[in-house]
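Ticket #4471: structure export looks truncated?
Reporter: QA, pipeline team
Priority: medium

Steps to reproduce: submit the single chain below to the structure queue and open the exported record.
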Amino acid sequence: MSSPWAALAILFTARLSMAFQYQVVAALGPLLMDRHGADLADLGVLISLYLLPGLIFALPGGGIARRFGDRRVVVGGLVIMVLGGAIMWQGQGWTLQIVGRLLAGTGGVLLNVVMTKMVADWFAGRNTATAMGIFVNSWPAGIALALLVLPLIAGSAGLGAALLFSLALTLGGLLLMMFVYRDPPETGAGPSRGGWPQGAAMKGILTAGTVWGFYNGALAMVFAFGPSVLVERGAALVQASGTSSLVLWLAVLTVPAGGLIGDRIGRPDAVLLVGLAGFAASFALALFTPSLAVFILMGVFCGLPAGPIMALPARVLLPETRAFGMGVFFTLYYLWMAVLPACAGLLSDMAGTASVAFVFGILLLALTAFGTVALRANRLEPA
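Actual output as written to the record:
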């Protein structure tokens, strides 16, 4: 394999299978609750468990890859994902669903951390931003695909068939990485040097990681609880999942657009804040009129902040502290993504309606905006 774009296509597909697997619980939530006698709080916990292993593996993930090799670690992660998916497919009790979810998430976090480096190795010094934009979009594309396809399969062939389809997609990613993907001819990999961020830089990366976590937490309210909100308003599950998935399909376009617009006008923070405001406004509208038009508006605005937020770490970290600093950044992301959906599920269960998750999303977006303004006000960019 000599083409970086062919390698990117394989990495995109493998990571898409991870996003698809992550979304299984939310897309099939009502069916899983009926099958196992679970409630919304249980569903929120099960959603959160997929990202919980990131708290353990985000920091040491790069070191593990240096020791064993990027491709081997990704293949190992996919094997663990297949095992977790198989347990969820065949597991009859809620405990087995939890075990399968944790195993799948453990494999998934290795993909998330190591594959980003693999893309950078292939595109070092050329088309890096374009490649990263395509790669990052594998996440919303996989989630949107799951919301669209899984309810259709479950409706026609049952819950087991839908879970088996997700398992097959993950197995396909594993086969691609095992038998088709090859490492780039020259990776330039070596032991990373440097230390931990100190002082203002540490405060900055802690804030940036929390901003990224809160933003993604708000986004999770759409695809984790959006179908349940619409079902409560009388929509069929297939229709509700399709409407929610539209947000993610639009995000595939607006995620790279936000970064491009911010760079072109030289004001990424303005694009970030406009996107957050529009996203919050669409959440508020959805509480009163959860129509297709409102979810389209949500999709237009929700992706705009992603690029500018992901640019924040470079503004607060010096090159020699970037490796450890990014470990902190992703650890915070996994922390908040493990906690926030569970909190939303608990609040929704206490209130007796999934709509509370959208209110929670508005709060998270307000906190995201506050963190962004705080970073700008403190001028934490390195010299």
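Status: closed, not a bug. The export was complete when the record was re-opened. Leaving a note from the reviewer for reference: The first helix runs from residue 4 to 27.
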